[in-house]
Target: Phosphoglycerate kinase
Amino acid sequence: VIKMTDLDLAGKRVLIREDLNVPINEGKVTSDARLRAALPTIKLALDAGAKVMVMSHLGRPTEGEFNQEFSLQPVVNYLTEALSAPVKLVSNYLDGVEVGAGELAVFENVRFNIGEKKNDDALAKQLAALCDVFVMDAFGTAHRAQASTHGVAKFAPVACAGPLLTAELDALGKALDNPARPLVAIVGGSKVSTKLTVLDSLSKIADTLVVGGGISNTFVASAGNEVGNSLYEKDLIPEAQRLCQETQVIFADDVTVTTDGFSDWKHDSKTAIKALSEVSAEDDIIDYGPQTAEKVAEIIKAAGTILWNGPVGVFEIDAFAKGTEVISHAIAESPAFSIAGGGDTLAAVDKYDIADKVSYISTGGGAFLEFLEGKKLPAVEILEQRAK
Ligand code: 3PG
Model:
């Protein structure tokens, strides 16, 4: 692909697609990880003397209508402060935008436009007509073939990859294509069903696949153990057994349980640590036990490459968080090349304050998972085609 950093942007109209889809509460950005990741690209274009336009989606609004709840205004407020420069939010941009060299305009939520999600050619051409150079930098949205990610790249005079997108692809490529071994993949989360393709593709490349959370419970059950009241998927037991034949799979062999009902879960909920043989019909497995956490920590410390997606327990609740905490610290201490990605995973990275110690933190949620599944990201594929 063509790289933004190889182009002369001075005086050019540069339209950058970022993923500024961040959580907002009462008009304030509550997690700025994606904004911090996008800022260097924006600064680079501004410093190069480009006329900079940035576009993004936010959430999943109904198309064809403005909705304050999904406005990018809080993001613009954040950028104004971060850049110490005026940033204007433009609502009616499709017919043309006035922006000076070294200035920044942010387009209002692209998902307000009719045709964005179905990748309408007419809309994509309108976006393309606004720029001399289109920069795709939104790794987090690169798995979506939409007008602002894919269509615009078809029609823009020049379409290139921004530094954030390039960095994401390089880091993930390093972990997947020719990883330092052993490659340890840690996949947590509640359900095997939503991560089956990821587990499948990782089972083929990882030396050790560590599973946690509800996913681990299905593996625990697949080995013939009682899981009591725990979240697990009976139908997927054969899949769990099949994965165990593909590679070494580590799941809980001691567990943290509670008998509190879901609605009573609290930071000081009562828990017990049990061997698998001791789990009773009333128990709900909500985390690894200490032995499993320690075993996984040792595996992590001996890894060459670590890929992490998903917590191994209900870490939002302190009483059920120990496993995820131990693993987070083990990743932080491991000399391995480590990558963490996915929304819940980043919340754990924040909670245990290990962001500086993970080699690469992906801004992708769905895009990160699709990359791990070995899927081609459509917004990257179009850049490759344009480069030919
Ligand atoms: C994400 O948060 O994963 C991306 O911003 C994509 O959002 P979407 O799933 O609404 O397309």
